[in-house]
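Appendix B: a complete holo record

For completeness, this appendix reproduces one full record from the ligand-bound portion of the collection. The bound molecule is pyridoxal-5'-phosphate. The inputs are the chain sequence and the ligand SMILES; the output is the full three-dimensional arrangement of the complex, encoded as structure tokens. No fields have been trimmed.
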Amino acid sequence: MVRMQFSYGLSLFCMDNIPGAWRRTASGAGLLSPQGEVAPTIFAEMSAFAARTGAINLGQGFPDEDGPFEVLEAAREAIAHGANQYPPGRGIPDLLAAISEHQQRFYGLTVDPDREVIVTAGATEALTATLLALLDSPDDEVVVFEPYYDSYAAAVALAGAKLRTVRLRAPDFQPDLDELAAAVSDRTRIILVNNPHNPTGTVFAQEVLSEVVRLADRHDATIVTDEVYEHLSFHQPHTPIATLPGAAARTLTISSAGKTFSVTGWKIGWVHGPAELITAVLTVKQYLTYANGSAFQPAIAVGLRLPDSYFADAAAAVLRKHELLGSALRSAGFEVHAPQGGYFTVADATALGGSDAAEFCRELPERAGVVAIPITAFVTPEHRANYAGLVRFAACKRVDVLEEAARRLSALS
Ligand SMILES: *Cc1c(COP(=O)(O)O)cnc(C)c1O
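The structure of the chain with pyridoxal-5'-phosphate bound, as generated:
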């Protein structure tokens, strides 16, 4: 049964071997059929597969528990009180003010709520609108760390520009600063930095962030950050690049409520930075979604104003889940690269015969009743060999679900 159902998932991993049939989307994670139809991303496909087979889904990174009651209640109240029509394109004033207060409170950043911030349909829209707004020539380059979040390559392709990647290497997944410097040139329009980082779980060292700022300044590039895990940095306070000397004037800071408040389906994100850059992003954003989430926006304003203890407790809870998952993976025979932030633990399956992690992940539901994602889903096709044995497991699941996953994984050893 499992095997039959897997013929559905098979195309994910074997499409390279089907000449003239499926083509990969720009990200490498989705598929285009010969007729050009878009197939689901690997995450959607693996989630559907887990749902059908009863495998535990440690693939896609969404929590299986609700976020804080006050936030959910605020959305219910907003609906009851008529917040059901288009909100302003920039976002409702109360949320813009709450984002500005949040940036001041946690990072000492001053953000003008009227001119320097807009609300978006998740961090994803903020990223896409930003790339479409700032890139205008096929020679423009965007430098990203690899492996990277799957929407980056797709959005760069939509903008008609080029992606340049800088490798992150196990075990600590910090970039080599010389490689970073070599990747940035006068063609670089954007350096895109996701910190804390998905999928590796790394938190970039201070000297990496400083080097990004130095290079952006030297080559007149814009820094775009993806800080959706800003409140899930486990061992050190999060440092937005915009707080580094000289950075704010060329940085667009992107974040989102989804991960911080366990409301990934609400798709409330934001981007802030210099007013003229924000105006450029808004110009594109108004023709993507125009606006979204009228009832969720006031609720996220409530969330951003929760006491410090909410944010600290949420990070501590996710860290405990990583520890549980990490020790289960270690006892099952994986080499675990313990994360410093975010939702994911990366583990090397080579010792378990998983030197081809894509193959390993295809078999994992049958061998252990668990779904996970090979890191190769997050790298450009020509670099896949560098990440061949690595598997990403989502730790943002209920403790009882992780305990059951641990029992099942122990069958591997
Ligand atoms: C989840 C995630 C996003 C998407 O955020 P949304 O607010 O759901 O659009 C963006 N970047 C990274 C690194 C993520 O993990």
